[in-house]
Amino acid sequence: MKRVEKKATDKEKGKKGGWQSEANVLSDSLEMEDFKNKKASWLSQSEKRKLCIANAFIGGSRVVLLDEPTAGMDYTSRKALQILVASQKDT
C-alpha cells in the first residue's frame, strides 16, 4: 500500500486545472490508478465507492459526511481510506 502525503494546496486548487492536481492526489491516495480511465458504469462496487469518496473530498469542502464509507472494501482499501481521512482532517 502506498502512503500518499501530498495534498493539493489552496493555491493549486485556485489555479486553472488545479482540481486536476487534487484529483491526482486523491486517486493516488485511494489507489485508483488501475481504473481511473474507465467509465463509472464499468466499475465494481468497491471501485465506485472509492470514486464517490474521492468526489466528496475534491473541491476543498470544509465538512464531509461519510456513511459507512468502507462497506464492501478490502482491508488494503480500508486502510488507504483511513489514511486519506486522517490526512484531510483540519485542512
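(the above was protein one; protein two follows)
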Amino acid sequence: MAEYIKKILAVNPKLKKLAGVLLILVGLTALVTPFTPGSWLIFVGLEFLGIRFLVWDKLKERFWKK
C-alpha cells in the first residue's frame, strides 16, 4: 500500500503539494484545539512540500552510522 501511494505521489506532484498543505492546515488546527498531539502533522506536511530540516540530516548521520 505504501509503495502504491509513493508511486501516485511521484507521478502527480500537484497531489503531493495538496497533501502537504492539507497536513499543515490540520497540524495548525491541532495546535489551537484539543487535538494537540496531532500538531506533528505540520512537520509531515512540510516534508511533503520538500522542506527538509537540517537537523534531520545530522540526526540521521549520528544514529544510522554504518
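Reviewer note on protein two: The chain has one domain: 2-63.
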